[in-house]
Design brief:
Blueprint: H1 27-30, H2 45-73, H3 76-89, H4 91-100, H5 104-119, H6 128-133, H7 142-148, E1 156-159, E2 163-166, H8 167-178, H9 188-204, H10 209-216, H11 220-237
Helix pairs in contact: 2-9, 3-9, 4-5, 7-8, 7-11
């Protein structure tokens, strides 16, 4: 989503505070690995489908054109550097959730990555921690922490501007927002610009993947919903 998987924010759209095209950008990568069927509680399917269609139109009418224009202006190495810097800034959320899950070694890795990438990696522009020392990123979030504590996914949800999620991960989004350093920038428009730019930059690096996933699916809503649940189960199990 959002590396691809490791940058995932929950899927679909965030332009002007949208929350990310992560999962859709990963569908091709995960279809084989997560091919098994999963039972999903979706009592709100009619409402969820309506929101899915809203998000889908939003992607094609707004987010994709913005990302294509952005791609035309900035070369790929620059966009990759921007992604790395913003990912480096988001370290506190990963660190805290590693600690809450008792993954102290991984939390130490996150601290080490932040120190190395902020200095040697020039504020995170390069992922020197991975390239030079093979210190991997651990993409833990609050929803995964709740899952590790034994809380089930609950009913399936599709949220405006966010996309497929579930009751547990929707609550987890609150924790993710509170742990995001960008939230504490005093200027509202600065926060908005950073979040919008982050997602447009991310989508510009994965243009065409959402379209291919949609073309390959008999029912794209069901495909995204089920892939999301399977992917989250795998993340929590790991």
């Amino acid at each position: 989503m959002f590396g691809k998987v490791r940058t995932m924010w929950r899927t679909l759209f965030l332009a002007c505070a949208f929350a990310g095209a992560g999962l859709e950008a990963q569908v091709d990568d995960f279809e084989d690995e997560y091919a098994d069927e999963v039972e999903v509680a979706d009592p709100l399917e009619p409402m969820n489908r309506g929101i899915y269609h809203f998000n889908d139109k939003l992607y094609f009418w707004l987010l994709r054109p913005l990302a294509k224009g952005y791609e035309a202006v900035l070369p790929k190495p620059v966009r990759q550097g921007v992604r790395n810097v913003l990912d480096n800034v988001s370290m506190p959320g990963r660190f805290v959730n590693c600690v809450l899950q008792g993954r102290l070694r991984d939390s130490g890795s996150e601290l080490a990555r932040f120190g190395i990438n902020t200095t040697v990696g020039v504020l995170g522009w390069r992922d020197s921690a991975l390239d030079k020392w093979e210190i991997k990123r651990h993409g833990e979030d609050t929803g995964q922490t709740l899952g590790a504590w034994g809380i089930g996914p609950g009913l399936s949800l599709t949220l405006p501007l966010i996309g497929p999620t579930n009751a547990r991960d929707s609550v987890g989004l609150i924790g993710d927002v509170l742990l995001d350093p960008v939230r504490y920038i005093p200027q509202h428009w600065t926060r908005l610009g950073i979040n919008a730019g982050k997602q447009v930059n991310h989508v510009s690096l994965s243009l065409g993947e959402y379209e291919r996933s949609k073309a390959a699916a008999l029912d794209h809503y069901v495909s995204l919903r089920d892939l999301y649940e399977q992917y989250r189960e795998r993340q929590i199990a790991e």
